[in-house]
Task: structure prediction
Amino acid sequence: MTPYVADPVYLNGQFLPLAEAGISPLDRGFLYGDGVYEVIPVYSRRAFRIEEHLKRLQSTLDGIRLTNPLTTDGWKAVVVKLIEGAPWSDQSIYLQVSRGADNKRDHAFPPATVPPTAFAFASPLVTTPADVRTKGVAAITVPDLRWARCDLKVISLLANVLARQQAVEQGCAEALLMRDGYMKEGAASNIFVVRDGVLCAPPKTELMLPGITYDVILELAAQHGQPVRIAEIEETELRAADEVWMTSSTKEILAITTLDGKPVGNGPHAGQPGPLGQQMWQWYQDFKNTVMRKG
Ligand code: PDD
Result:
């Protein structure tokens, strides 16, 4: 069986087999979910938008007042070495930094002498099978129970975990998070909506993760003259949408074709991936094969 995590992994300055990578049970990532992470897709052994991912890592670290244990070049060197060591051409790199392990449990920060824990590994990039993509996936809406800094990519993901599990238990691929009558994003994805030929996306606020794929989609839309509206998406607009998509580094663009058991869209495409989503998927593939795979 293909292992999910490649050897070696990176832990606190060392490259070592996963089976030998150990951390203290007092690590604050474990005790408090006190840490941050990134997921970077790799195409043809090239990390995609690594600068942007490392910038987002830095803003999240700044947001939780944790010093970055590595420089940008330091992280890049770790990523290059993980990519080289892994057997797959397309990969997903996971980076995590926690606030380290003190010798006791205390909510307040540990002394500055306690180093952060830095962990990273490579796994295969699992893409959506063509039959799933061409059919689209089902999603549900759930109340957004997260905190008020959803723009930070932190490892405390309990509300996201519970929302995604609720979706899975209902045979769905994603849960759309609703707050104050607006759709913010998915449990682990950004959400786009198409209405009357306009691509609509929620704005980047403290209540949504600023997705790297979200930026790529908006760049592709601008390049191809696709009209875009960046504004909060009301629940009524979501339910009346012609198309709904989820986007992320690992899922790319995936059509949501049923929402809370009802088909998305009206007319001939109801309950099926719509034309703009298919077009965007093609633009994304062309971009990936020309720009991304070439670095
Ligand atoms: N999740 N919103 C949330 C809440 C996410 O967790 C993610 C990504 C995104 C999309 O961001 P990006 O396009 O940068 O991948 C939006 C990753 C893949 C994860 O948690 O595994």
